[in-house]
Design goal:
Helix 1 runs antiparallel to helix 3. About 30% of the residues lie in helices and about 15% in strands. The protein has 2 domains: about 80 residues, no CATH class; about 160 residues, Type I PLP-dependent aspartate aminotransferase-like (Major domain) (Aspartate Aminotransferase, domain 2, 3-Layer(aba) Sandwich). By secondary structure, the chain is an alpha/beta fold. The protein has 8 helices and 7 strands, in the order H-H-H-E-H-E-H-E-H-E-H-E-H-E-E. The protein binds pyridoxal-5'-phosphate. The site of pyridoxal-5'-phosphate has 16 residues, from helix 4 and helix 5.
Length: about 240
């Protein structure tokens, strides 16, 4: 789990090779080591108690956080100006994680109709089985009318900053304002843009999703996903 991002004192090109990893904390290894361990040991019983009660941040159990996985989490959080990030097994896992957290127990998502095929299919066929319903916004490109499409049980607005494959560009700032006026968060899938081209949090997004499988990785040799959080949304109300 990434709790702290590196101060944005460095430029993008430095952050993309340095952020989230300090060799001094890893035996001065230049390449981040692969911590192939499920659990991490405790200094003493007090340390264990503090980790389990989240009083102290630290490595506990790899499903929750792992020092190797923390590197891409903190790096992408730094690049995007996020408060923190979690890495998951794929972009679709990142979307599932987000939707299940926002709309479990029968919520609605107001979504852009311009979607990646995997999202479009799963919005139609998988999440409705879990009680999550989708409204396909007619006014995603007319944000001044978008508020009319928000229902009492709408839990979030979901858009792609550059849609895949149709390359539609919604006005993220205007849509963020519509969401916030209704007290709900804006989720932006920023996979196509990557933080190199666009940083949704600077334009009002509350959650940013990546498939790290695509341009973020750039080499076509892994599947991964990330969920980033801006730190600016008051989650206590939803
Ligand atoms: C590929 C893609 C995903 C899904 O990511 P996977 O890593 O393949 O699960 C989600 N959103 C967009 C925009 C994508 O292009």
């Amino acid at each position: 789990m990434a709790n702290e991002t590196q101060a944005p004192a460095y430029r993008f090109d430095t952050q993309r090779v340095r952020a989230g990893y300090d060799p001094k904390e890893h035996q001065n290894a230049v390449s981040p080591p692969i911590y192939q361990t499920t659990a991490c040991d405790f200094r003493d019983a007090e340390h264990a108690k503090n980790l389990f009660s989240f009083k102290e941040a630290g490595n506990l159990y790899t499903r929750v956080g792992n020092p190797t996985v923390a590197v891409p989490e903190q790096r992408v959080a730094a690049l995007d100006g996020a408060s923190g990030a979690i890495a998951l097994a794929s972009g679709m896992a990142a979307i599932s994680h987000t939707l299940l957290n926002l709309a479990e127990d029968g919520g609605r998502i107001l979504t852009s109709p311009y979607l990646y095929g995997g999202s479009a299919d799963s919005f139609k066929k998988i999440y409705p089985k879990l009680g999550i319903r989708f409204d396909y916004a007619k006014n995603i490109l007319n944000p001044e009318k978008l508020a009319e499409e928000i229902k009492p049980d709408t839990k979030a607005i979901f858009i792609e900053s550059i849609s895949n494959p149709s390359a539609v560009l919604p006005d993220v700032e205007a849509i963020a304002k519509v969401a916030h006026d209704a007290g709900i968060p804006l989720v932006v899938d920023n996979t196509v843009a990557t933080p190199y081209l666009f940083k949704p949090i600077e334009h009002g997004a509350d959650i940013v999703i990546y498939s790290a499988t695509k341009g973020l990785n750039g080499h076509g040799n892994l599947i991964g996903g990330l969920v980033l959080e801006s730190g600016g949304f008051d989650w206590r109300n939803i």
